[in-house]
Amino acid sequence: MHRRRALVLFVNSAVALIGSGLAAVLGAFALRPAAAAPGRWIKAGAVGDLTPHVPVPRVLALTRQDGWYRERARETVFLVWDGASSVHALSATCTHLGCQVRWDGDATRFRCPCHGGVFDANGQVVEGPPPRPLDRVETRVESGAVLVRL
Amino acid sequence: MSRIFDWLQSRTGYRGARHTMLDETLPPGTGWFFTLGSVLLGLLGVQSLTGAFLTLYYAPTPDHAYDSIRFIVSTMPGRLVRGLHHYGSSFIVVALVLHMVRVVMFGSYKAPREATWLSGLALMALILGFSLTGYLLPWDQRAYWATVVTINIAKLTPGAGDLVAGLLQGGAQIGALTLTRWYALHVIFLPGLLLGLIVLHIFLMRRHGISGPVKPREGEAMPFYPWQAARDTAVVSVVIVALVALAWNGAPALEGPADPSDNSYVPRPEWYFLGLFQLLKYFPGKWEVVGAMIIPGVVAVLLALLPWIDRGPARDPRRRPVVVGAFVVGLFAVATLTTLGWMDRPRPSAGGQANAGWTLRELGGRTFVQSGRCATCHAEDGLSEPLEMMPSTRGPDWLAGHVADPEMIAPGLREPPVPVGERESAAIVAYVRKLSRASYPSIDPTTQTAAAVFARHCIGCHVVDGEGGDDGPELSKIGSTRDEAFLKRLIADPESVDANAEMPSFERRLSPAELDAIAAYLANRK
Fold this sequence. Notes:
The complex is a heterodimer. Chain A has one helix spanning 2-30, and strands at 41-46, 56-66, 69-81, 87-91, 102-104, 109-111, 118-119, 125-127, 136-137, 139-142, 145-149.
């Protein structure tokens, strides 16, 4: 009866081992981390075209890789120049539920048309439901040209 | 814990099912040879699982199939899963043949197991159907051209050729409709049939019991679990370890994307169809149907009738010399044909290897891409990635259209069409298509310049490495008869070396650097 027990142990553990190995590989394959591409630097404008502390919207066309699918997308970013050497870019996507914010020049505020979110020129929340400031987009200035990473 | 199982037992009766599944008693002497069915079952399980998971990412359309597979193999688990599925199919064919050899040698098909045998043969046909339909799905050159051949063979079906071929092809040509059709067959219709037939096969096997050793042995009948199950598990484990080892680095690389206009591609089937492929070669012209349909058909009918051809009670192979002999001869014939088919490979042409496998036109295209308008959008900070970073799976017509009018793919791009010469366009298309399957080799500047000159001027009348017009002499080995100085004079002013030369003068059309480069390059072609 010892032999029978050894064989039962062998069969059960081998089946469990193969099964869990296969499950691990297939699980990793199914859960494949959505490896977000690092983004590419895209020319968004020239510093010379900007006014200090006034966000300027730029609609940028970009190709985005969605798995095996290459999607052509347009994305709006606001470029804000500090008047010196630094430019930062804010995403136009409201951090509440994803609507596109607009710049209200008179009030010097970003307003979200959906649920009344209001942000200041630096993207900080002033009013309404947004849980966090507008997302910053990585930016760099290269010989007068503003590049953003999307 | 035991209360949960007791509850489960009272509601489902699962212990009875477990008893039915595992406690079948086997005749004494049932040994290692009887593990092959379980190996097949295990491999089919791996194949179903990996196949099901591959559908998470695979897209069955000509535009995206190839890209989706490239995406699948871009990570380690993806490479392994595709590798397991790819090599799994070969393992299944091997296990299938071994299982069949075991059944024939042990005379296991004899009464009362004729129906088991027939269901096994149907399973074999079905599995070959899986191989055939699965082969098209990557939509690379190999897949496309193997399917062209398969559908043309189907046209030879006596009396119903067009019907069968039309049914397989789906549309007017092999394309989107063929791909979705074969995909549906591969993942819905055939698996349904397979499941049904496996259940039937196992049901019949259980109904008559395992045939056991050819001569009944004395001893105690043992239950399947764990005694035979241990042997099955041992063999299945070894097979799966071997499969994983083979699949670890993924399936063989994809070839270039399917290109119906490529007339240089020599299609070859997967190894287990090489026997049939070789057989066809012996029956040219109107006899083709003999190799494609009649011989395989006769073999299939003979196999199906085996239990009635070999009706005697004896199961020992030594007492059935005619049947076993004929079977062995048949196996030997299949093995020989497969080996011959394997050896009869097209040799890579002498040309084409000169520049790391790149033709001059492909290389020349790079120069045009870099000097032309392509870089306006295809740049590090441009609208689209540099061409070298985005291998294209588009067909030549699409690419030529895009070169002529970039707006074609991105309405609103407002990039005005720039006139591009026909030869430049052809070279750009060739370059981009080559990039889809190979990365640019490091080529010296002289060759690169010469390639652009060749692709723009010489290619109209001269052949190098099998590419070009035939109005002038081939130049692939011109360096063995002409030196650089002579070639330079000839290209600059042909009449200076031959008063009757028909070739126009290129002195004014080429820059001095270009003239030097093409003369130097050609002088080196020996």
